[in-house]
Amino acid sequence: MLIKKPADIRSSEITPKDVWLQRRRFLQASAAALAGVGAATWLSNQGVEAQGGGLAKLPNVKKSPLSITDTPTSYEYITSYNNFYEFDGGAGDGPKRKSGGFKPKPWKIAIEGEVAKPASYDLDEFLKPYQLEERIYRFRCVETWSAVIPWVGIPLKSVIDKVQPTSRAKFVEFTTLQDPKQFPMQRSDLLPWPYIEGLRMDEAMHPLTILAVGLYGEVLPNQNGAPIRLVVPWKYGFKGAKSLVRIRFVEKQPKNTWQIMAPGEYGFYANVNPEVDHPRWTQRADRPLGGFRTKPTQKFNGYGDQVASMYKDLDLRKNF
């Protein structure tokens, strides 16, 4: 057996420390999840329908023809490995452990900016005109993990059509609740609060873009962005602003939170693009949550046929 000495090992073969730590956190979270659900998690990963987490069921949900046919990732993995920086500063089970006291009801959401019908709504009233749909989407985290998630929500386009943006509206800005009493990390300077995300108007109007209010037929768990969040399946996980309180239509491109925090690593677009590596890790492969075998990353997360035309005149190496 050939054993390499440190001097023989190329730097490209050494796992970056932050990637190793992410994998270690994932293994710890996975072990905890497996201990809690045992054979049920194993069966769900083999194609047996997952049963959810015992939260309130969402009524009158129709299946969407835009769903993919892949087997959904186990509910336990989806709800036990999360990024939600208002609750915890890292990916893993921290948001689940720390979000039990969060109160997602009652909830208000405001529509503001360049629209004919600005208003503030109670969430139940906001959702009333729309048909809830289940959308099974591939979902990719920026740290190279991937999942298949059965979201329940409404097309963002339906909301946009209803509120009637003016001709000045070129972008949509999404803002998360700011409440340090409920979000403990907002008492820190980890990020500039509140959390902000943005989309171009054509991205927001695309049929795949949804506002999610549930997963696996149930209301969203706190750690997954309750009670309402953005889901854009061809973009990285951080284009999924959670616990939304404001949707604002604006003329100029908004600066999202990560673009402000680390402009050399995170741009405005956040498209899944394996041709452009993150400065601290490769994006050419991803590993499904609950598994250890990597697979090549698909451009636009496999949704290229539906969305690539929006970027045909855009250099995606510069506009990352």
What does this structure look like?
The protein is of the alpha+beta class and 320 residues long. The chain has one domain: Sulfite Oxidase, Chain A, domain 2 (Alpha-Beta Complex). 21% of the residues lie in helices and 21% in strands. It is built from 9 helices and 13 strands. The strands form 2 sheets. Strands 1, 4, 5, 8, 9, 10, 12 and 13 form an 8-stranded mixed beta sheet that branches. It has a 5-stranded mixed beta sheet with strand order 3-2-11-6-7. A hairpin with a 6-residue loop joins β12 and β13. It is globular, with a radius of gyration of 20 Å. The N terminus is likely disordered.
Biggest β-sheet: count, sense, barrel?
8 strands, mixed
Instruction: Report the count of strand segments.
Output: 13
Q: Taking Cα atoms only, what radius of gyration do you get, to the nearest Å? A: 20 Å
State the distance separating the first and last CA atoms.
43 Å
**How does CATH name the architecture?**
Alpha-Beta Complex
Q: Unreliable runs, pLDDT <50, ≥5 residues?
A: 1-50
Principal-axis shape: globular
Question: In terms of topology, how is this protein built?
Answer:
Blueprint: H1 17-37, H2 39-45, E1 62-63, H3 75-80, H4 94-98, E2 108-113, E3 119-122, H5 123-127, E4 133-140, E5 145-155, H6 156-163, E6 171-176, E7 196-200, H7 201-205, E8 210-215, E9 218-219, E10 229-231, E11 244-250, H8 257-261, E12 285-288, E13 295-296, H9 304-307
Parallel strand pairs: 1-4, 2-11, 5-12
Antiparallel strand pairs: 2-3, 4-5, 5-8, 6-7, 6-11, 8-9, 8-10, 12-13
